[in-house]
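Q: Sequence in, structure out?
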Amino acid sequence: MRHERDAEAGTMVRAWTVRGGQRGEREELALDEGMVIAGWEEVGDLSGCESIADVGEVLARDYPDEAPARVDNWKHQLWRFITMETGDLVVMPRKFLGVVAIGRLIGGYEYRSEAPPGFRHTRKVEWMRTQVERAVIGGDLRDSIGAFLTVSELRRRGAAHRVETLAQTGVDPGYNGAIEPPADPEALEQDVRDEGTRQLTARDLIGLWGWQRRTGDAIDLVDRELSARGLQVVPHFTEVQLDGLITVSAQEATPTGEAADDLAGTDLRHALATFNGEDLSRHWRIGSLPFARNVVTVGFDEPLNRAITRMVQGDFSQLPVVNRNNVLRGVVTWESIARAQMGHRDATIQAALDPHPHTAQEQEELFVRIDDIQRRGFLIVTDADNLVLGILTAADLADQLKLRVEPFILLGEAERRLRRLTDRLTIDELPEGSGVRKARAAGKRLTLGQYPEILKDATCWAKLGWPYEQDELVRCVIAVKDYRNELAHWDMDAPETKTDALTETKQLLKLLKAIDHDPRP
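A: Exactly. Output:
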């Protein structure tokens, strides 16, 4: 089996995630006896399998009622398990604990026929660290480790080097480089088969199907395509910013005891918020907003005057209090500081601490939490391990709502002024053979797409008498019409990705205002 060289580590060592099982019994035994264990209790000895096809034949024989796609998923996982090389690193998430164990493989595949079913497929491991806090691991690597698979490879973003460093020092050096996306959906599917998971940005994911922004149509299509290919995404690509990382893995429902650890999450209520008939709650999540991510924090054991200094310097109304691993412990606000000082308490963070700050996770529906943001002024955004990711303030929310509402206000005003300016033309003066005459005769309002028909007509243009270059104004109206069509359904990534079109709309409106004076009150 050919191994890719890890350029960061300069070594052939690779890193793998091997889970301890649905209930955690295999995890405890693995730590006690120095090994990792794969389940698949119906499967016998795999020592004779010389290829992945051989593993597939064994699985098809032992699980005749399972769907072919699931068997294909399992055979890739078991093939990884039996072909991992001595010296490779393994990461085992410890269920019900916020830690992972890291070890090094010191033996080949062994089948223990005397062990209970589900405990027979094993690899010997020398455990190097058994209590690495998940909080010290970078979010991208934690997402890879948290995939819904029993066995997967940690290949991307310098993973092997980072796991090695974690094992040696307990510190994740992180990774800041770009990540190359797959070439097409088939390549994504192949990467997931080969490695178990594949990380990429939300932008690159939808780009595999030719989309640049997450419109309702784009979301529906990509969801359907992923489901048809047996793939799932965590977090969902609507729950992060467009350039945020997501992890793709195979869908897996495993009656064999191979289910991955439950990912922490919130039982969310559904808020019905609609625009043009679309349910915005499924598009707008806390994580899809560009909230402040470089958060200034203060340590639990630091003096209170340090918090006050940072709050004044940054003009903050609140400051998250964290431990050494950036896990949220509480918050200090001007109100909590005032209460501490009026009560003559010690000048410590602990004395002014509000231990129950209002928090949200990125996957939560935005419209469920708007009242909280307005009432409290902010939400601290955390992940499933309670690490601080950012702060979403009422001001941030107002700015984002303005960005998304402004285009519709401008487009509506431009359309109203075009209507008022062209209403002076009689039906007989409108272009012949066009839908414009028919619409006006039926008493219907013209659409933005119909105004270029009027403005391109030489007779109409002459009667309007506008002091502008005809071709340029027609081009501008057509561009704004195209922008309006793109926004016909709510687009969670607009308008910041269409600044040119928004500018053109403002310019058209400026031209129209110059010749269409509002009536005096």
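DSSP finds 17 helices and 17 strands in the chain.
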